[in-house]
Design brief:
Elements (H helix, E strand, L loop, with lengths): L7 E12 L4 E3 L4 E2 L3 E18 L5 E4 L2 E2 L3 H14 L4 E8 L9 H16 L6 H9 L5 H4 L4 E4 L12 E5 L7 E6 L9 H11 L3 H20 L3 H20 L10 H15 L4 E4 L6 E5 L4 H9 L6 E5 L6 E2 L2
Bound molecules: (3R)-3-hydroxy-3-methyl-5-(phosphonooxy)pentanoic acid.
(3R)-3-hydroxy-3-methyl-5-(phosphonooxy)pentanoic acid binds next to helix 2 and helix 5.
Length: 326
């Protein structure tokens, strides 16, 4: 029993994958079919306050609205098992950005949840253990435990103990800039778990996608080690297009892009043709994230902000690991 706990608040930052994760090797443990490499973002984050309470169920709110989520209860059950308690929790979360629109809200959300819940339970977990817990809420959340450049290992063990994220490079060691071009604040129509299952079972290209992943990861790791912006940018754009090609090739064709997404893609390529070091990436939603070499973000934000259909273009740097803030 951890009765009358004081609230513990954690902040976790969203991340964007440069080498994408899409597809699961085990649905129950949420094990990825491929590894991934991401960067953690400075200005998009979730703050989660958690208190243990004497109610029969966990309760959760996100941005003031009640949320019912089997995944939250599942992650809380895992933490309860580690803490040897059956006490339920009151979880209060806020995102400083639109939820569920392809801006990685589940990543920052589950990372903030496991950091706050484990701290509130008095558990002293390693970042690897936190990453493994976060993964069971959302695959990309495993990466938001860490800051800067992060690699998520696909792992090979059936129990998932080798499927976790680890840091590749510190955020300050290569201060890349990211422009997030928001094209809509609406929630996406097909969530990523549904989309991944559909792709794995109904795309002819899924095996090729999995077979190509390790080569992309090796090349991206090398580009980061060498601070080779053009190599990393080109690999990122290609991984994004391969993933969206895979989505397009599922049974019903999964299209996350809007016309503004396509317009922003062309603007990024136009900027590059003008000599600006910038590459795009897009997750399971219509927003475009532009990866910029240090010093180029402001002009990219100005140009993307002027694209028809782009509602806002927000410039940010790389963010830190998830951490307790109060
Ligand atoms: O783990 P999820 O359910 O948030 O899925 C993430 C999928 C992508 O954002 C499209 C790619 C990625 O690696 O983050």
């Amino acid at each position: 029993m951890i009765a009358d706990s004081t609230p513990i608040c954690a902040r976790a930052h969203a991340n964007i994958a440069l080498i994408k994760y899409w597809g699961k090797r085990d649905a129950a443990l949420n094990l990825p079919a491929v590894g991934s490499i991401s960067i953690t973002l400075a200005d998009l984050y979730t703050e989660t306050a958690l208190t243990w309470h004497n109610a029969a169920t966990d309760t959760a709110t996100l941005d003031g609205q009640p949320v019912e989520s089997k995944r939250i209860s599942h992650v809380m059950d895992l933490i309860r098992a580690l803490a040897d308690t059956d006490q339920r929790a009151a979880v209060t979360s806020t995102n400083n950005f639109p939820t569920g629109a392809g801006l990685a809200s589940s990543a920052s959300g589950f990372a903030a949840l496991v950091v706050s819940a484990s701290a509130a339970a008095g558990l002293e977990l390693s970042t690897r253990e936190l990453s493994i817990l976060a993964r069971q809420g959302s695959g990309s959340a495993a990466r938001s435990i860490e800051g800067g450049f992060v690699e998520m290992h696909r792992g090979h063990r059936a129990d998932g103990t080798d499927a976790y994220a680890a840091p590749l490079a510190d955020k300050d060691s290569w201060p890349l800039e990211v422009v997030v071009a928001i094209t809509t604040r609406a929630q996406k129509a097909v969530d990523s778990t549904t989309g991944m299952t559909d792709t794995a079972t109904r795309s002819d290209f899924f095996d090729a996608w999995v077979a190509g992943a390790d080569g992309d990861l090796d090349a991206a790791r090398e580009a980061i080690a060498n601070r080779d912006f053009d190599a990393l940018g080109a690999l990122s754009e290609r991984s994004c297009l391969k993933m969206h090609g895979l989505m397009l090739s599922t049974g019903d064709g999964l299209i996350y892009w809007s016309s503004a997404t396509v317009a922003a893609i062309h603007e990024v390529r136009k900027l590059r043709a003008e000599g600006v070091p910038v590459y795009f990436t897009i997750d399971a939603g219509p927003q475009v994230k532009a990866l910029c070499a240090p010093g180029y973000g402001a002009m990219v934000a100005e140009r993307l902000g002027a694209v028809v259909g782009v509602e806002a273009a927000q410039l940010m740097g790389l963010g830190p690991a998830a951490h307790v803030i109060a």
